[in-house]
Amino acid sequence: MFKSLQLTSIRPRDSLMQLALPAVIVSVFLGFGLVEPAMLSSGNIANVLKQGALFFFLAAAQLVVLITRGFDLSVGACVSLVSVAASMVMTAVTATAGPVTGVVAGVATGLLIGAAIGAINGTLVAYGRINPFVATLATMSIFGGLSTTISGGFPIFDLPRTFTFAFNEAWWLFLPAPVTIAVLVGLALHVVLSSTAPGRVLYLLGDSPAAAHAAGLKVRLHLCLAYVASGLLAALAGLLMTAQIGSGEPNLGTNLVLGSIAAAVVGGASLRGGRGTVLAPALGSLLVIGLSVGMNLLQINGQLQPVVVGAILILGAAFDMLRSRAR
């Protein structure tokens, strides 16, 4: 059963879509570049890669739960809470134990919070049998409010220089740190989804929940773990975004949810579950960030950018419907 599922998780039509998307991305860059040459400069390309890497974690978080026929509206709130809580721990520990210990404590705090938020979402969805929309909408409100409450609504400054340098300015393996981390996480996620039993169970759960239950698999446990993975990926995004701006922001993830879903769906993940690879968040993130950066360079009204993101989500859903009808 797993073998046949693995072979059908990527179909020829899906492969053609994934080949077409890089062409669209290149066209977007060339189109903006013809109007504004700075779009194609080496500095801007590096900036797009960094921004795309940060957004990749959020789109990857959506991919994991989309595979199971769910989605996670709380990723933005997770980013905000991780940013604030990790920054508060980091500054407090740094003052008493030094920057290295402070960074380790802050990063560990952020990851634990992400895993805890994911576990709460997973418990509500898998064991409480609450609709993912309702469950994650509720936790979005709870954890978004908590991030504002513990910070008093103000940013957390004075982060250790070690943190901002290591996770934003430094280069790891000849690439900017966020890009290297995204590549390593993406490779690990690809292996888990394509070559391990838990990953195949997620595809089976999304493709045919009845078959997953009939096979006697630990469906609820795997579904819960999918949301834990989503929380961890969102926490990574929160930590790296915090390193980029140099402060803990209680509203850092407020406007990221729709874009993360749009990136995953337009990249090839299915809203109907059971489909999608790591290429989906990778390509989708480059498209969304490329459009955003290009519009910024052309000084297009920033209020139009959510319109573009919404259009991308509609196009992704339309392509998803066409793929579904073709099967």
Automatic annotation (TrEMBL):
Its main location: membrane. It comes from the Bacteria. It holds the Pfam family BPD_transp_2. One of its GO terms (molecular function) is transmembrane transporter activity. CDD domains: TM_PBP1_transp_AraH_like. It is found in: Cell membrane. The chain crosses the membrane at residues 20-40, 52-68, 75-97, 103-126, 133-150, 170-193, 224-246, 252-271, 278-298, 304-322. It is a multi-pass membrane protein. The keyword Transmembrane applies. PANTHER family: ABC TRANSPORTER PERMEASE PROTEIN YPHD-RELATED-RELATED (PTHR32196), RIBOSE IMPORT PERMEASE PROTEIN RBSC (PTHR32196:SF72). This is Ribose ABC transport system, permease protein RbsC.
